[in-house]
Amino acid sequence: MTPAVDRPRVLVADPLAEDGLVRLRQTAEVEVRTGLAEDELVAAIGDFDALVVRSQTKVTAPVLEAGRRLKVVGRAGVGIDNIDLEAATRCGILVVNAPRGNVIAAAEHTIGLLLALARNIPQADASVRRGEWQRSRYVGAEIRGKTLGIVGLGNIGSEVAKRAQGLEMEVIAHDPAVPPERAEQLNVELVGLEELFRRSDFVSIHAPLVEGTRNLIDARMLALARPGLRLINAARGGIVDETALYTALVEGRLAGAASDVFASEPVGENPLLTLPNFIATPHIAASTVEAQTSVSVDVAEEVLAVLRGESPRHAVNGPSLPPEDVAFLRPFVVLAERLAALHVQLQGSGVSQLEIEYQGELAERDVSPVTAAAIKGLYQPYTEERINPINARLVASGRGLRLVERRTPRPGPGYPNGVVLRLNGSELAGTVLAGEPRVTRVGAFRVDLVPSGRFLVSRHADRPGVVGRIGTILGEADINIASMQVGRDAPRGRAMMFLTVDEPVGAEVLERLRAVPGIEDLRYVELGAADG
Asked: pLDDT tens, 257-297?
């Protein structure tokens, strides 16, 4: 007689749609106990293999440390602010989420806000309720034939593009992480952010809130707007400078704006709410019955995959490597991420193919964390999703990236191990010396660069006076040069220079530097700490 197999136990600590509970109960013993205080959760969690939460329950380090059987924490939704991710990783507990279950809901809400803006629907409704009948006051605008500019062509932005095209709108987009081939598949033209604001009748924000997008839409950008522009933000508060938006609406530079998100929520007192040409909703873009069901089912599938010993599709953290592998791979992980980040900051365009060549002993190892780090370097500045060895390939696939890995067991020229990244025709190479990542080549130029800190990177004619003029301008701006490397393809040919600087370089100084005779291209690059 075959002995009974114990079913895994799952604790659901926040309300979850019934479809998700049904899916969990097909495989596991499920107990729903909502509203638990931290000490109550600490006392209970030791008997469970999995924990499922939404946003209310705080999954703290004491909770995770008490989970002696706990293998996975599932978040029914995207954000993981209520989960101590570092403690989970330290305890060897996988954290999964459901980032795609609310995509359609958010896209449809965006279209709803667009139509409400175009036809003054909330304002007209309020007027009728006041007993008025002012038809001439609420003359709207048709959207057919108008241009929609989408900032962020990810999952939600792509769905908005499809729906706008169904309404016979022309769609353009700005997204530095999207390759042209992906945009062509969507029949969307990729443009710069400034051009997008100059050309668009409507602009819809679908970028993540990361350091590079905070106050991305500021007074300068709004000043470039086409007359009559209407702005929609159903992404994240903080991307649009609310003070600048208020001024643009009051001065009539924008015809209207609608927002589902705010820098501070609940919104409370906000000058935007006093304006007749501003529409607000209380962060409900993802709040549909279908979306709540979808994220519940998605997180159930993720949790059950982990309990079966399979790799989930949407892991937020990754499993720990054996200590000996960690010690060897860690500097290569940092190197790959920073090589990719360097490419993005130098080229400033989407990548359609990433080829990674591993040389030497590194080629004989499990290099999946290194490949994941390169993907992270390409895309982490443009997404709130935490990219790791488990989900990196999925993120790359979703962005339309073709990934090629090559292994060359023989050492590269001059170094026992090496990493070479080939991206859209450009090539960067690096190695690890004495445990420290080094960039050894950028295109045809050989360098020996520690990829950490602030850099000015110039391509210029190898002529007397160019480097001196750059130094003079930096000195006048009180920017200290820490080190300098110059490579050239031939005497008095083309040169590439890396200047390490101690202080940030502002736009005005960059403009002066780019005006130096002989400068072909000059970029300011920051390479910060990477996750090891």
From this structure: 999 999 998 898 999 999 999 999 999 998 899 999 999 99
Confirm whether 283 is a catalytic residue.
yes
Q: Are residues 303 and 366 in the same domain?
A: no
Task: Identify how many contiguous H helices and E strands the chain contains and give both numbers.
Answer: 17, 22
Selected catalytic residue, list 100, 253, 283, 469: 283
| CA proximity to 431, closest of 439, 443, 421 | 439
The CATH number for 61's domain is 3.40.50.720
Contact 376, 318 (CB under 8 A): no
Tens of pLDDT, residues 443-500:
888 889 999 999 999 998 888 888 899 999 999 999 999 988 888 777 888 888 999 9
Q: Which pTM was predicted?
A: 0.75
Q: Is 291 exposed, middle or buried (0-12, 13-18, 19+ CB in 10 A)?
A: buried
Domain assignment of residue 1, yes or no: no
Is 424 exposed, middle or buried (CB count within 10 Å of its CB: 0-12, 13-18, 19+)? Answer: middle
Q: How far apart are CA 165 and CA 142, in angstroms?
A: 14
Are 460 and 400 members of one domain? yes
**Beta-bridge partner residues of 428:** 421, 442
pLDDT band at 79, cuts 50/70/90?
A: confident
pLDDT given for residue 5 in this prediction: 56
Cα 419-313-30 angle, rounded to 5 deg: 145
Residue 402 is among the residues annotated as catalytic for this protein: no
Instruction: Please give the structure tokens belonging to residue 397.
Output: 């696939």
311: confidence class by pLDDT, cuts 50, 70, 90: confident
Strand ordering across the sheet containing 494-501: 481-488, 494-501, 453-461, 519-527
Q: Work out how many domains the chain is built from and give that number.
A: 3
Q: Of 251, 265, 361, 526, which one is the catalytic site residue? A: 265
Judged against a pLDDT cut of 70, whether residue 149 lies above it is answered with yes
Q: How many CB atoms lie within 10 A of CB 181?
A: 13
Instruction: Count CA atoms closer than 13 A to 508's CA, side-chain side.
Output: 3
- In whole angstroms, what is the distance from residue 471 CA to residue 100 CA? 49
Side chain identity, residue 190: L
Give the tokens for residue 49: 């293999």
Question: Using an 8 Å Cβ cutoff, are 122 and 116 in contact?
Answer: yes
Range(s) of the domain holding residue 509: 323-527
pLDDT bin (cut points 50, 70, 90) of residue 532 is very low
The verdict on 265 and 341 lying in the same domain is no
Q: What confidence tens digit (pLDDT) does each residue in 313-364 have?
A: 888 886 555 667 768 888 999 999 999 999 989 886 678 899 999 999 899 8
Q: Are 294 and 101 in contact (CB under 8 A)?
A: yes
Taking each helix axis from N to C terminus, what angle separates 507-514 and 466-476, rounded to the nearest 10 degrees?
A: 160
Which of 182, 206, 236, 399 is the catalytic position? 236
Q: Indicate the helix (H) or strand (E) that contains 438.
A: strand 436-442
Q: Which two tokens stand for residue 69?
A: 């059987």
DSSP 3-state assignment of 240?
strand
